[in-house]
Structure formats: C-alpha cells, structure tokens
Amino acid sequence: MPPKSLKCKECQTEYPLEALYACSNCFGPLEVSYESFSGRDPEELKRRIQAGPNTLWRYADFLPVQRPPSGALPTGMTPLIRAERLGKELGIYELWIKSETSNPTHSFKDRVVAVAMARGLELGFDTFACASTGNLANAVAAHAAAAGVPAYVFIPSDLEREKITATAIHGARVIAVNGTYDQVNRLCSEVANERPWAFVNVNLRPYYAEGSKTLAYEVAEQLGWRLPNHVVAPVASGSLHTRIGKAFDEWRECGLVDGPLPSMHGAQAAGCSPVASAFADGEDFCRPVKPDTIARSLAIGDPADGPFALELARRTGGAIESASDDEIREGISLLAKTTGVFTETAGGVTVAVLKKLAERGAFGPGESVVATITGDGLKTPDAISDLVQVDEVEATLEAFEAIESLEVTA
Ligand SMILES: *Cc1c(COP(=O)(O)O)cnc(C)c1O
Ligand SMILES: [Zn+2]
Prior knowledge:
Elements: E1 3-8, E2 14-15, E3 30-34, H1 42-50, E4 80-82, H2 84-90, E5 94-99, H3 109-122, E6 128-131, H4 135-147, E7 151-156, H5 161-168, E8 173-177, H6 181-194, E9 198-199, H7 205-222, E10 230-234, H8 239-254, E11 263-269, H9 274-281, H10 306-315, E12 320-323, H11 325-339, H12 345-359, E13 368-373, H13 397-401
Parallel strand pairs: 5-13, 6-7, 6-9, 7-8, 10-11, 10-13, 11-12
Antiparallel strand pairs: 1-2, 1-3, 4-5
Helix pairs in contact: 3-4, 3-7, 4-5, 7-8, 8-10, 9-10, 11-12
The structure holds pyridoxal-5'-phosphate and zinc ion.
C-alpha cells in the first residue's frame, strides 16, 4: 500500500509527501493517504508481517517510509497482557493491558518518533525538534542520539524532573519555556517557520500520527488477527485515539481482520478535559482550557484532533470520560496491585476511566476490552509518593516483631 499523498482532512485537497502539515486552502490538518488497501491477498500480507522484524517496522507496508532505517532504536512489539485479576475486580470478562512501558524510552511516544524521524531523514533533515509534554522530548532525544543527529526539545518549564533528566542525558538541547504546552506549541510553529528543522509533531505531524497506528496493528496481531470489542485510550491531542481507529479501519479494508470497529473510548484528566466536556455536552468542537492536573503528559488544553476523537467515539458507540487527580492515583495503584504493571499518571487516567465505564455497564457480557497503558510509573513517582508505605526498623528481630501489623493489602 504505497503512500500516495498528504490529504486535507477537511477539504480533501492533496499535497506531495513533504514536510507539510496544514492545508493552504482551508488550514485543515493534513493526513497521509495510501493507495487502496483492498485487492491485496490478506494471507500474503499476513506472511509479510510475520516474516518482518520484531519491531514496529514489521508493519512497513502501512507506513509512509520508503525503507525502514537501519540502526534505529528497536521500538514496538510491546506486550499485550491478559489482566485476569484486574478484569475480575472490575467485572470485565476479557481484559487486556497493552503495556507501552517496555518501549526504549518507556512510553508510546517512541512509535511516533521512530516513524517521523525515519521520514524526516528521508526528506533530508539533519536536525530534529519537538514541542513536548515530556515523553515526546524523551523519545526525540534518545532516537536522535541513536541516529547521531542534534535535537532541540521545547517543554513547559514545570515538567517532572525525571522526564527532563531522561531527555537531557542524551545530549539534547532542552529549552524550558515559561508557559503552558499550548504556548510551547505555538512558539514551535514560529520557530519551524524560521529554521530548517524537522519538528516531529509540527511540520512532520502527518508522519508522526502514522506511528501511533502501529500500536493498534500489534493489538490485532497479538489477539490472533482479531479486533477487541472495546479500546480505552488516553486523549491528549487526540492523535493516538483517532489513529487506533484509522489502523483498524485499514486492516478491515485489507481483510486482515473482520467485524465492526471496536467502541473507541477516550480518557482525560478532569483538570484538562476539553474533549470529555464536549462529549458530555453533545458539542462537535472543544473549548480550550488551561490545564491543571497531575497527568502532565495529557495536559493539552487545545487538542488538535479533539473534534475527530469526538466523532470516532460517537460513531463507534464509545465514550470520552474524565478522572480526577485522586481517581488517577487510585488507578495507578489498582493497576500495580492487580497486574504488576507500574504506570505513569496517563495510565492512571486510563485505568480510572476503564473502572468508570465498567461500573456503568459499558462492557457487555463476554466482551473483550483493551486498555492502553502508555507510559512508565518511574517517570512520575511524585504523583503517588503519598500512597506508598515503608516500615523502617532497626536491624534486630525485636524491632521487626514490634511492627504493629504485617498485613499486606493485595
Ligand atoms: C502523548 C501521550 C499520550 C497521547 O497523546 P495524543 O496527543 O493524544 O496522541 C498518551 N499517553 C502518554 C503517556 C503520552 O505521553
Ligand atoms: Zn483543506
């Protein structure tokens, strides 16, 4: 399925596959469009995928890169874990956790950077940059180091220390901007006009978005070429949520999977929930907000793909819900205690919304649910420091025996 063009999502005008991201007719967002996905033998496609590398490049037939790069950080093929205990706790028949913590920089952002950077290098860029809520900075810095190209990352100055450290150590230039992510993003659009840099989520955004699709391909392949009934995914800009839908649609068109699209549920933090609010109010557009939440990686107040996420959730019978900071912390703790997976705050948002949906009866008897856990808990330890308890004792048997209760709350 060779990529054909960049196409405006609003007015369908087509553009060449270059570093472009907005339609010059209507300012709508551009998206990669491909030659038709139908008419290929699905068994042959399956064999090509299975014979590919154990990374997201096994799906190269569905990506806008001519040749998978050599020497890139191995990204993707993260585990899909059957969460029996959490499923039982929440009354979900078949629950799966897609754990993105095992990517090279411990979040799903490695996928979007792998694809955007590969395309950027093909287009001849030699300097990479991004506007980031944290994880993207981390991924751009690491992948640039592996490729031996300089990186400039722009972040809001109040980001978690752990994410800043894990970025700067790779030699990236970190520019901490006094402002919100939305202000950082606006600044980057201006810088992108001035300098010949590849901003992975600004002028390479159409290619960046394609990287998110690989999470969905993996889920379908790992389920045995089958779609789940429901997916719960966090929503920041709405790119991941909507590209999971795009990926499943492409594979339905190819005949690699059949059946309807899963119900596509979205999860936001209550302190930054423009999409969940619009969903609740029955609106087609999102009113921008000023974020105030512990889920920093989801703190985008003016989400570019918000309207498309609303449309996808409604079309598939999904919902977009929000969770408070306390519910996010409880979600992190619940996931850790029942599955052994420690997630950052964004995953806490997903689990908290998963729980709400389950309690509301959104998942029918016998239905399968995939919850996407998009980042590692070691990135945001301060968020849950109040929840963890340690007993400190002197090194004597008496001191140990004197601990009041040794019960474990599992
Ligand atoms: C970036 C990010 C997301 C989703 O972002 P979108 O902009 O909606 O694609 C989800 N979880 C984590 C941990 C992230 O870093
Ligand atoms: Zn247009």
